[in-house]
Predict the structure of DNA-binding transcriptional LysR family regulator.
Amino acid sequence: MALTRYTLRQLEAFVAVAEQHSFSGAAQSLGLSAQAVSQLVAELETVLDFRLFDRTTRRVSLSSAGQDFLGPAETVLRHVQAVDRAASDVRNRAAGIVRVGAPLVLAGTAVPAAIRAYQALRPRVVVRVKDLPVDQLVDAVQVGDVDLAVGPDRPTGEGVRCDVMFDSRWVLWCASAHPLARRRRLRWADLRGHALVAAGRDHERSVSQMHVNAPEGERIEPVDVVDNISTALGIAAQGLAATLAPAYVGVIAKPLGLEMRRVIEPEIVRKVCLYQPTARKLSPAAEGFAQHLAQWLRNWPKQGAR
């Protein structure tokens, strides 16, 4: 028997009559006429090829076959109601899974803080963080490995939208006993002769691009390149070298006892952006979290984001 021969309305009418022991009572609970309910039950009995109710002038009661059929019918309606609630949750951004990519510092600080705040509003939305190198953020959004990404400004091309969340100066981080810590502000020329460690090829390229036109003898070059900013900050905390990084890494640099010094002439500003796909539509849950995350990042506490 094809399941398409059943209708949910027929099952609703049957269960309502079984509960009310009355066609008129069932009609009232369903907002239908008694004749309409009677017709729905009759249609269902025709499809099933057995009688569901024993009818008398005073009472409607389940037949033996109707008693056997009632449980499965109620189960079907409960599952349908669950499906309807799930659809409502998805539609209203109340449930779903969202994947967010971010480099180490943002993946371990700003993004989890934003998730915690969002869970108070949408507890059934699951947000998963994927820590990614800076140079993989845009590609991850474009190919669908993540729904959203947060990180320093990168070229996007087609298929990915970039919205600037906040600016963060490119600064020097060093131990308090480091010679460069004695000065409130530094010029790039002041860095020459001091050991610098860069975190990742993205940082190394950024430092090189800052002085691409400088004479070869005056360029600032890192003595070492490590994979993660946490490693560079750890080296700096021991006084083995200083490191250049955006000011927002202060959320992990300051607890290590590192000092921040502005570097001027020129002063370089790093933009932190939210990346979203344009070639595909985000799920309602991802759209909702993207809006929340954008607002959160723009208001991220000064010690972490400025």
About this structure: The chain has three domains: 3-91, 95-165+271-305, 170-270.
